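As a warm-up, study this chain.
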Amino acid sequence: MAGDSSFDVVSKVDRQEVDNALNQAAKEISQRYDFKGVDASIAWSGESIVMKANSEERVRAVLDVFETKLVKRGVSLKALDKGDPKASGKEYRLDASLKQGLSQENAKKIAKIIRDEGPKAVKTQITGEELRVSSKSRDDLQSVIALLKGADLDVALQFVNYR
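Now compare it with the structure written out below.
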């Protein structure tokens, strides 16, 4: 395969950026007037993020503040897997986790999109939680990247190891 160019399609989240967004959201929640007296908070709980408040609307507002901070830091909201608010005693809790890696079914779906709509000379290969796309022509690879950016997928995609 000498002379082939390739790149990997992955779904990774920069944990440091998420941490920064969480800290910014926690600071804003502690300072904003509309969150005074509602015991609103956001924090890590192991690998998941826990948001708490005394009403369902307030906990959704905490989520909205956090999502705004994620977007400003360049983290895709597709990487955030959030549940519904649940009553827990006197407070409402909302748990969210980060989706990392491409599942087999998503990798197959992406490979099918490339096969059906992409250039014919492009080859795909699924390896673990990533998808390698290779071709002799770099222009074909550029068009595959453009195709995947335009596709409506439920995962956040990054393109790495372009060579």
